[in-house]
């Protein structure tokens, strides 16, 4: 094709290409990086977001979005391997999101990436009645293992502020105490969590956090619990039903009258309500859903079999979590540790339910 092209034209084209290449290298450092998302403008640099789902989401200025997976140059870590890894457990769901176990991530890499984003982590716990006795262990171990090096605020809902212990907190880590009324039934404490968490997110927490975790206070941390747990919506497999339990044997709400109803033949996993987390606004939507569905049940004189956990499981069946965490993220000191649980990150304590619960555990 070039054989019939005038020599002058070829010389002109070569000169043009040379000028264009030279101009690119002259200005390339001033060009913005190419992104697979659009930056959303934000008046608050603390909550500036990265949009991964298109320009429509820029209308929602309060929503945190995971940004660039940027890592500091020079960080030393083990080379990833495509041929080795966990073979004793499944590490991906059938809707193709991570199922997180020890050995499926590098804590050095993932913590470094998320520290660059500098998210604010909120932890909501309820310590009502005699459950204030568990605050010290939860907070002290949290300061050793929970999102170390990140900004964390523990929101403690309690009916007895005087029993909240004084704990030495790390840099950028705080405790906020919020008052709630006492309860005469433990079921009311459980259902009340959804009400008071909804109200507090609306009035305060959404201005102070990017991620939110709901956790049970009668637990302590044993090992790191870090950025590998973060996603838009992360749910934890219940330790009692994660192995070979048929879906029809899950303790879902089976009564059609309840808003938490899941019919036989449906279900993915059974999730615990003792630990769950995600983007602040996604958690707000889910917490509010559990509260409102519980209120609808109350109008029909029915209470879901496992209160908010039943509503949580229905929601997550039809609104899939974007990350599933293994039972490492909520074990129980009552149970023998299974061979596939290589590390326990947080675990529920042994206790006398009849003594600590307001209605004797019934």
UniProtKB/TrEMBL annotation:
One of its GO terms (cellular component) is Golgi apparatus. Its cofactor is Mn(2+). It is a single-pass type II membrane protein. It is found in: Membrane. Mn(2+) binds at residues 216, 218. GO terms for biological process: carbohydrate metabolic process. The active site is at residue 309. The chain crosses the membrane at residues 9-27. The keyword Lipid metabolism does not apply. Keywords: Glycosyltransferase, Manganese, Membrane, Metal-binding, Signal-anchor, Transferase, Transmembrane, Transmembrane helix. UDP-N-acetyl-alpha-D-galactosamine binds at residues 126-128, 131, 216-218. An alpha-L-fucosyl-(1->2)-beta-D-galactosyl derivative binds at residues 238, 309. Binds 1 Mn(2+) ion per subunit. GO terms for molecular function: hexosyltransferase activity; metal ion binding. PANTHER family: GLOBOSIDE ALPHA-1,3-N-ACETYLGALACTOSAMINYLTRANSFERASE 1, GLYCOSYLTRANSFERASE-RELATED. Belongs to the glycosyltransferase 6 family. This is Globoside alpha-1,3-N-acetylgalactosaminyltransferase 1. It comes from Nothobranchius furzeri (Turquoise killifish).
């Amino acid at each position: 094709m070039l054989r019939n092209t005038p020599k002058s034209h070829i010389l002109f084209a070569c000169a043009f290409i040379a000028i264009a290449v030279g101009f690119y290298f002259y200005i390339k450092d001033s060009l913005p990086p190419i992104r697979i998302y659009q930056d959303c403008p934000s008046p608050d640099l603390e909550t500036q977001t990265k949009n991964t789902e298109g320009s429509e989401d820029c209308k929602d200025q309060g929503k945190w979005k995971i940004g660039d997976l940027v890592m500091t140059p020079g960080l030393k870590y083990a080379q990833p391997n495509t041929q080795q890894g966990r073979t004793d457990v499944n590490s991906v769901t059938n809707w193709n999101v991570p199922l997180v176990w020890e050995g499926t991530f590098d804590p050095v890499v993932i913590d470094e990436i998320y520290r660059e984003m500098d998210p604010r982590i909120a932890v909501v716990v309820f310590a009502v009645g005699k459950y204030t006795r568990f605050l010290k262990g939860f907070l002290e171990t949290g300061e050793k293992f929970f999102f170390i090096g990140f900004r964390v605020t523990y929101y403690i809902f309690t009916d007895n502020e005087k029993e909240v212990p004084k704990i030495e907190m790390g840099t950028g880590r705080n405790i906020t105490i919020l008052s709630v009324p006492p309860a005469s039934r433990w079921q009311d404490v459980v259902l009340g969590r959804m009400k008071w968490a909804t109200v507090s997110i609306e009035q305060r927490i959404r201005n102070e956090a990017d991620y939110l975790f709901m956790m049970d206070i009668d637990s302590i941390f044993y090992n790191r619990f870090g950025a590998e747990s973060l996603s838009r919506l992360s749910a934890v497999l219940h330790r009692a039903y994660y192995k070979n339990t048929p879906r029809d044997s899950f303790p879902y709400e089976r009564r059609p009258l309840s808003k938490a109803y899941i019919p036989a033949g449906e279900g993915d996993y059974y999730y615990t309500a003792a630990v769950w987390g995600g983007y602040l606004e996604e958690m707000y939507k889910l917490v509010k859903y559990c509260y409102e569905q519980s209120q609808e049940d109350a109008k029909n004189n029915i209470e879901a079999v496992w209160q908010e956990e039943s509503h949580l499981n229905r929601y997550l069946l039809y609104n899939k979590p974007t990350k599933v965490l293994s039972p490492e993220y909520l074990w129980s000191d009552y149970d023998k540790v299974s061979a596939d649980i290589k590390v326990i990150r947080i675990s529920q304590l042994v206790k006398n339910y009849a003594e600590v619960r307001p209605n004797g555990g019934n």
